[in-house]
């Protein structure tokens, strides 16, 4: 029997969480009770500066008043109606997303994996049914990519550790090397359905695509009749300083997936495409009970309104550069060597190596700064897009102390 939480210790609560929950992650030994702006608070009264933002999700910070208001008032009006009906808020969100992006049409869902699943299904069906090309059976993705945890999404994910034990995987995937156009050229051909790529690899270690790479992919796809899919689940919705990463890189895909930041903290994903490609889906091709959920749509509408403001996007570019500059400076005197500081906008990574990354994350958290690792070797900084230079100063001070502790432990 679960007791009232106020009556039990944090340790006891954690024990229940571990005994009844998912084991894929090793949750930190604290229990979060609330958030406000750039900060999270645990049940033991500790405050944390949040540079992880639910892994690149809470783009407006925690409990942004406009977002809370939109969710509350929509919950009072209607929460769920299924795709059998339209809601006013779903139509409004679709209108907004198509006005703000290259895309004409979209499928709304609840997560990044689902958005990618829909992207891969649409690409296959477009080639097979609309182009009547049954010979196109392969999707090219990249080593060290991450596209989610459904069976097709883990197959698309070019990291064997996510495949292990789940075989047989979905047929029809080939893996090229990120940043290496020749490796794509070697795989692409009349059998290719699509190339799917993260404009900035997130889970692989915060790796921006090198100059000209996405342009090259666009050319190769056009030359071979393949579709280009951008997975913007992590790098989309303002994180690069442009509303969408494809704008930052100046290359327009045929299909784009979004999630994470789109809801600002609630679960919503979207798979968007041109009208031409969307012909691949007809009535009955694809659906989801919660797709277009009114509460999620109301939230995403507010997020898009706020994030598309030029002053907010300018803040991402300014504070993102300030963060990278500050990290480089910190790296000069750091007892834990910085192999590289890299990133775009407010998606920044510091490669310190697998032997240090996890330790630095823990030491920072102990001092009130939340970050996490990407690729096991890189510290990842994906704060809310409303972060200020002052927050960066505070974060760097804590990080400096954390590095000193970890460095001393190695000495
Ligand atoms: C680039 C990318 N694609 C897809 C996903 C999967 O999204 P979700 O966890 O919402 O299914 C992630 C999650 O980290 C991601 O970073």
CATH H-level superfamily of the largest domain: Type I PLP-dependent aspartate aminotransferase-like (Major domain)
Bound molecules: pyridoxal-5'-phosphate
CATH architecture of the largest domain: 3-Layer(aba) Sandwich
**Mean pLDDT reading:** 96
Number of helical stretches of at least 4 residues: 14
Q: Tell me about the biggest sheet?
A: 7 strands, mixed
Helices and strands: which structural class? alpha/beta
CATH topology of the largest domain: Aspartate Aminotransferase, domain 2
Tell me the helix content.
25-40%
Sequence stretches where pLDDT stays below 50 over 5 or more residues: none
**Fraction in beta strands:** 15-25%
Distance between the termini: 48 Å
Number of domains: 2
Strand order of the largest sheet: 4-12-11-10-7-5-6
CATH class of the largest domain: Alpha Beta
Q: What's the β-strand tally?
A: 17
Shape: globular
Radius of gyration, in Å, reads 21 Å
